[in-house]
Amino acid sequence: MVLLAVSGIDDVSALFRSDAVGNITLEARNDGPKAGIARIIVALGNDFESANAAAMYQARDLVQNLSLATSEEKQELEALKDDIKPQWMENWFDGLTYCTWNGLGQNLTEEKIFNAVDTLAANNINISNLIIDDNWQSVETPAGSENQFQQTWLEFEANTTGFPNGLKHTITNIRSKHPNIKHIAVWHSLIGYWGGVSPNGKIARDYKTVEVEREDSLPANLPMDGNMTLVAASDIGKLYNDFYTFLTNCGIDAVKTDSQYLLDTLTSASARASLTNAYLDAWTIAGLRHFSVKAISCMSQTPNIIFHSQLPSNRPPILVRNSDDFFPEIESSHAWHVFTNASNALLTQHLNVVPDFDMFMTVHEYSAFHAAARCVSGGPVYITDVPGEHNIPLINQMTGPSPAGKSVIFRPSTFGKTRDPYQGYQDPVLLKISTYHGAAVTGTGMLGLFNTTSRPVSELLHIALFPGVVEAQLYVVRSHVSGLVTPPLQLVDYRPESLIYASLDVCGYDILSAFPLRGFVRPSSKEETLWVASLGLLGKMSGAAAVVSSEMTLLETGRVEIVSSLKALGVWGTCFSYFASF
Q1: In whole angstroms, what is the distance from residue 300 CA to residue 306 CA?
Q2: Angle, vertex CA 504, rays to CA 501 and CA 509, nearest 5
Q3: CB within 8 A of 228, min separation 6: which ones?
Q4: pLDDT at position 581, please?
Q5: Rounded to whole angstroms, how far apart are CA atoms 346 and 325?
Q6: Is the pLDDT of residue 579 over 70?
Q7: Are 158 and 184 within 8 A, CB to CB?
């Protein structure tokens, strides 16, 4: 049984919480001026996935049928959706991305960015996308305060300290020297900056503003409560259209829009009701109009945003951060980060989004652990290395060069999620992130294994754990870490020798892929069957996802012809096995 609290309809929010003794409680909030209804969906199914899907499908129908969007907004969304080409999505989602946040620090300058992209190129790391993160904007700092979260947005142009010649100069320089970088994004807050808009700046002079009050939403040493200036709902569409026009004129073609949850911290119900959907809709339409699908939604896992912007299917999917940040300096955060993303994906797999597991560093104690999680996530791969500190072999396990020289990642067809929705973080078992690539029956089930505990863990795994396996099919399972391949396995076989032994040390990982075997009886083989499997690209964490298509044919000569189409260059693997029966 799955229970889902629905938000975003008639200004009513509902969510489940738990109290100190483990009781499940329901909390509902009505931001509207009249009585409303809190809606709870209860779904039953033979297993968790079917019940979960039933609840989410019902929620989508509810939200789309009861949406308060105007007919003009709906028509524009449909028009923008129809104008977007599928290849644009693939180029944005499948390219290796570099983000400046952890690697370059918070005192961002164009010289630091130039050095970073130059160093990546010198190390033959051909990124396709660049994200210029926080600290490029022109902001005002309150007198006597060093708190970034109280700073306010002044104007569109970049700050003169770090970008003395303007943002356009920076982007033009990068594009002229590094043509391999196809897309360049900049960070900005949904509300302008962490503290909103400066009442003394150009933005406040050019657009109508309102004064609102927010509650404290950060630890005590970083207070954020108090009054804040925001652009009024009546002008937010104009602001976003003007801002994104400025960015495109600078050569920017993507955005990372952060701190979206801040709208949920406004203390006034009327302010939340009047601003939240207005901001979300204005941002969505402006983003699609100027950048197509090249937008990243961050800090947006609040009930209203999930149901209003991320569940409806009347718009193209965009990248949405699937968890909290990657914190390189907090050792205890890394296993939790992967566990949280795998668990959140039980929900986000049914949203109209591409889950984003966030950036990570390739030179780090948990770098391979994080890399493996990104490779089975079905989402993007971002690195945020300090210039010159790059784990080239690890990067090569995540990517491959296309014939055109582009570095591409290998995203499975489905989004990675925890195999066991009831597994606790402290349970002494392996975290299993399951995903699938290819067509039904003929595709490859993948199982990412992660030790999130503080001690070594060993398990016996059955082929039934792999998604997409069917009874009538034989499979071989290959380990990415060891390169070992099992004997042929079958779903209905429960002999001890059909079990797969997995043992991982602390922060250990592996990715197992179950490849379907196809049998051929050749005239000269004395009726023995030759079983063949295409293993994709070897040496890649998700090498099975490098396969675009694969066909096997028994020729009249008795030879078996295998034709595979691959996303990148590399070592293509095949498996052959002879046995008369099984």
Answers
A1: 7
A2: 105
A3: 191, 195, 196, 211, 212, 213, 214
A4: 45
A5: 19
A6: no
A7: no
DSSP-assigned letter for residue 9: B
**Nearest CA-CA partner of 419 in 433, 402, 405:** 433
Alpha-carbon dihedral angle through residues 309, 314, 317, 321, given to the nearest 10 degrees? 10
Taking only the tens place, the pLDDT of each residue in 36-93 is 999 999 999 999 999 999 999 999 999 988 765 556 666 766 666 666 665 556 678 9
CA atoms 390, 169, 294, 285: torsion sign: positive
Q: What is the DSSP string of 266-311?
A: BS-HHHHHHHHHHHHHHHHHHHHHHHTT-EEE-S--SHHHIIIIIS
Q: What is the pLDDT of residues 491-536, one digit of tens each?
A: 987 788 789 999 999 999 999 999 999 999 877 666 688 899 999 9
CA distance 96 to 192: 28
Confidence class of residue 328 from pLDDT cuts 50, 70 and 90? very high
Which phi-psi region, left, alpha or beta, contains residue 507 (left: φ > 0; alpha: ψ -120 to 50)? left
Provide the whole-model pTM. 0.94
Residue 88: burial class (beta carbons within 10 Å; 0-12, 13-18, 19+): middle
Q: Model confidence over 267-303: pLDDT tens digits?
A: 999 999 999 999 999 999 999 999 998 999 999 999 9
Share of the chain above pLDDT 70, in %: 93
pLDDT tens digit string along 213-229? 998 766 555 555 578 99
| Whole-number Å distance between alpha carbons of 77 and 281 | 10
**Contact yes or no for 481/509 (Cβ under 8 A):** yes
How many Cβ atoms are within 10 Å of 175's Cβ, its own excluded? Answer: 14
Query: What's the confidence (pLDDT) of residue 223?
Result: 57
What pLDDT is attached to residue 176? 98
**Nearest to 330, CA basis, from 366, 299, 373, 375:** 366
Task: Assign 382 to helix, strand or coil.
Answer: strand
How far is CA 420 from each of CA 133, 228, 346, 431, rounded to the nearest angstrom? 35, 43, 10, 8
Angle at 363 between CA 188 and CA 507, to 5 degrees: 105
Phi, psi (deg, nearest 5) at residue 280: -65, -45
**What's 104's DSSP letter?**
H
Confidence band for 582, pLDDT divided at 50, 70 and 90: very low
Residue 27 is classified by DSSP as E
CA 272-276-280 angle, 5° bins: 175
Question: Which one-letter DSSP state was computed for residue 488?
Answer: P
**Neighbour-count burial of 207, counting CB atoms closer than 10 A to its CB (0-12 exposed, 13-18 middle, 19+ buried):** middle
DSSP string computed for 175-192: HHH-TT--EEEEEEETTB
Tokens describing residue 37: 């209804």
